[in-house]
Design goal:
Order of helices and strands: HHHEEEEEEEEHEEE
Structural class: alpha+beta
Number of domains: 2
CATH superfamily of the largest domain: Nucleic acid-binding proteins
Largest sheet: 5 strands, mixed, barrel
Shape: globular
CATH architecture of the largest domain: Beta Barrel
Helix content: 10-25%
Strand content: 35-45%
CATH class of the largest domain: Mainly Beta
Length: 220
C-alpha cells in the first residue's frame, strides 16, 4: 500500500509571477507585531539605498585589498588568482586633462569590470550653471537640457574612471557635487575581459570618456 499522498497534475502547476512576487509580502503581513513589519521595511529600503548610492561598492574593494594590479605601463590588469585578465586599448598615447565643476559623482557596479569605479560628470562654462543647463546621469550615460535660448558655451564630459592605485581611488571617492577638480589620465578605447585566456566580453563607452586616472586634484 502506498502511504504517500497522491499528487494530481493540477496540484503541481507552477506559481504565477504575481504569486511569486507577492508571496514574501503575504508572509510578512502574517506577523502579529506591526512594529516588526515597519522595521523590516525600513531595513530593506535602507539596504537598497546603500547599494545604489554608496561610493564604495563591494566590487571596488580590490583597490584597498590590492588583489589586482596593472602590468608595466598599465597596458593590462591582472587578478592575483591568475585566471582573469583585462586588456586595455587606449585612444591616445598622451595624457588627457579634464578641469571643471562637478555636477555628479556616483559609484559604478559592473561585476565583469570591477576596475571601473565612478561616473564623474565634469563641466565648465554654461554647463556648470544649474540655472542655464539641467543635467542628469543614468546607466553610465548623461543628458543635458538647455534652459537658455542660445546653445550653452563650455564643456561637459562624463568620465568612467579606472584608478591607477588606491590613493587615486580614495580621491575619486571623496569628490562631491559642487567641487572644482582636475583629473588627468589616459583615455581608454576598449577594455577586453579574458578568463582562463578566453575572451568573455568588453567595455567600450559611447560618447563618454573612460579613463585610467593617474592624478586627481580637488581645488579648495
Amino acid at each position: 500500500m502506498n502511504n504517500n499522498p497522491e499528487i494530481h497534475p493540477e496540484e503541481r502547476k507552477p506559481l504565477s509571477l504575481k504569486e511569486l512576487l507577492f508571496m514574501p509580502l503575504g508572509c510578512l503581513f502574517q506577523l502579529s507585531n506591526p512594529l516588526i513589519i515597519i522595521l523590516l521595511v525600513c531595513l530593506l529600503a535602507g539596504g537598497a539605498w546603500f547599494l545604489h548610492f554608496s561610493s564604495s561598492p563591494i566590487d571596488s574593494i580590490f583597490y584597498s585589498t590590492s588583489n589586482m594590479e596593472f602590468t608595466e605601463g598599465f597596458g593590462s590588469i591582472e587578478a592575483v588568482s591568475g585566471d582573469k585578465e583585462w586588456q586595455i586599448r587606449y585612444e591616445f598615447s598622451k595624457i588627457s586633462t579634464f578641469t571643471g565643476y562637478i555636477r555628479h559623482n556616483s559609484a559604478i557596479n559592473e561585476k565583469r569590470f570591477p576596475m571601473l569605479t565612478h561616473d564623474v560628470l565634469i563641466t565648465s562654462g554654461d554647463f556648470s550653471d544649474k540655472d542655464k543647463v539641467n543635467t542628469s546621469v543614468r546607466n553610465h550615460h548623461f543628458l543635458w537640457v538647455s534652459l537658455i535660448d542660445d546653445h550653452p558655451k563650455g564643456t561637459i564630459n562624463l568620465l568612467h574612471t579606472i584608478p591607477i592605485n588606491e590613493e587615486i581611488y580614495k580621491l575619486l571617492s571623496s569628490i562631491e557635487d559642487g567641487d572644482t577638480v582636475i583629473i588627468k589620465g589616459r583615455e581608454v578605447y576598449k577594455v577586453e575581459y579574458l578568463k582562463n585566456g578566453k575572451f568573455v566580453g568588453y567595455w567600450s563607452d559611447s560618447g563618454c570618456n573612460t579613463i585610467v586616472v593617474t592624478e586627481v586634484k580637488i581645488k579648495e
